[in-house]
Amino acid sequence: MINIRYIQSLHRPFNQNLNTIKWVCSFVKESNNISKSDFYVQFYIYLIKKLYKQYSRKPPKETTGLPSLSSVKDVYDFFKQYKDSDLVNIINTKVKKRISSLDRSIYSTYKAASYYINLAKDKFEFIDKNYKLTSKGIELLNKKSRDFQLTKSDREIFFKAILDKDFHFFISNCYFEVVGKKYKISDLSSEKFDFLDKYYQIRHFNYTSASLVNYNTVRNFWIKDLDVIGGNNKIRKFYANILEDSYFDLKNDIDYKFNDYIKSTLLEKRSYIKNKNKFILAFENCKKNELGFANLYDLKQLLRMGAENYQKFLSDFYENERKNYNIFYNNIVTSIDKRKRFYIREKPVLSIKIKQNGN
Hints:
By secondary structure, the chain is mainly alpha-helical. It is about 60% helix and about 5% strand.
């Protein structure tokens, strides 16, 4: 039985930058005897100092999910006035206040730090519930690394960590990225969730629609940051080998289901979109009566579609596009027309009028 793997919640942008996991692990290694209650604020102090030093020397090229230079500088300048031992209480007070601009800078940067810990601890288990390094955290620190860039060894460790916790969502996102480029479909967000629901009964995201953009944005950033997809629009061999060697059963299962979904659902949708665009263009350019109706047979001739497929398309068009267009059908003709009628919601029709909503 396949073990379904997916992360239920992610924060955009603070869960995007995978480098932050290294900083949490480094802090754990360098620190001694920090109580659980002080861990967050002590890491926060460490983070501000680290970012200030780096930003002052050479700001990173990629700053997604990182506090801004101005916020870090404001907080760092404030910290300089106090001893580290005094800062714990001061920060806790400032985080709760959020009155001044400095308060708000402290709050936003502290929030970022808390999500970095969340990513390293709760999402990927590089540190455990006692804030100690796990075997993954130790492995990460044992490799040569850079603070603001992912090395090849970083990418391998993070890729495996993501697959261990988020295989089905992450890999299906990779596959949809490839398919989107191949078939020139710009937005496949709804299909991603439809696929997970249909084949893996992952319905959690159906009830969290307000945050759907976060799930896709974070995973797509990871895909880009790890450089998973090559210039040939395929998963790079480096990652494909990891999938084959360490996740063989999971990969075979999702490959079979994804290919089935593409054939049965996505390509059918692509065909519908292509026909819809042709249909609307044909309506705009064809002859219409004085009320603005076009004969459906005239449009059928322009689309070069068989009767059965055309009937299905007309029904799908009405159901799918009612929120985008005002669609009117009627069965009235100026002269006797004995041709077979088409049916929309079981009513016979012979002509159509389409108006963009709001016009």
